[in-house]
Amino acid sequence: MFDAPGPRFRRRVFWVSVVSGLVLLGLVALGLRQFAAGGQLEPVRWRPYLTWPVWRYLLEGLWSTVVAACATGVLAMAGGLLLALRPNRFTHAYAEVMRTVPVLLLVYVMLFVLPSFGVNLPLFWKLVVPLALSHAASYAVIFRAGVSAVDPGQREAGLSLGMPDGVVTRFVVLPQAVRHMTPLLVTQAVSLLKDTSLGYVVSYTELLFNGRVLANYNGLLIQTFIVVAFVYLVVNLALSRLAHRLEAARARTAR
């Protein structure tokens, strides 16, 4: 779709990256200096995070986050697949609308609006259902792109053998499309995992909620949220690394 960048453009990107990196390092250094001036870097403030009870509490929140993310992912992928395989005005409109509506707004609808109509779900589903409704639209786009990347001749070959269109889609097109979609699905999982942090709105005991409770208990607000951010960083970097590996494997297979 685009021409390969030339040497001038690559040099420009290099220097912009260097300047951006220096600015970022400067901001980090400034932040550390302010923390040190306020006594936030004193060892006594970080000592609680070297104990197992604190980490056990945070890991319990991480486990709840993973459970909510997995449940959301299953529902969102099922919904996205249905939207992708049944293209019509409704499915296209749903995908476009849900990709523009903030997830937090859907959570508020589930939390405050639906109970007034007698629909009051457990806390777990008050988080999972809005996330699944939102991410189903993104998964639908991914599935459509994966199906479009399959050679049309594959479908034509299946139909020429007398196979029904649905059978061709399930057993010929989708297995090949998965190879193209897998890196994107893993990348979408990173976004989904981050969105589970909205669980604090419905008081679902995920990682961020447990971090807030812990900070209120020990009074170490900055230290607690830095540790929570570190946990999110490690998990999301692992998922991003997995996506890069899958993309590289797919590229090697395509050669």
Automatic annotation (TrEMBL):
| Source organism, top-level taxon | Bacteria
Sequence ranges assigned to domain ABC transmembrane type-1 in this UniProt record: 58-243
Q: Name one GO cellular component term.
A: plasma membrane
Q: Which residues cross the membrane?
A: 12-32, 62-85, 97-117, 220-239
GO BP term, pick one: transmembrane transport
Q: What is its main location?
A: membrane
Q: How does it sit in the membrane?
A: Multi-pass membrane protein
- Record InterPro entries: ArtM/GltK/GlnP/TcyL/YhdX-like, MetI-like, MetI-like_sf
Q: Which PROSITE patterns match?
A: ABC_TM1
Pfam family name, one: BPD_transp_1
Q: Does the keyword section mention rRNA processing?
A: no
Q: Which UniProt keywords apply?
A: Membrane, Transmembrane, Transmembrane helix, Transport
The record's subcellular locations are: Cell membrane; Membrane
Q: Tell me which family the UniProt entry assigns to this protein.
A: Belongs to the binding-protein-dependent transport system permease family.
What protein name is recorded for this chain? Glutamate transport system permease protein
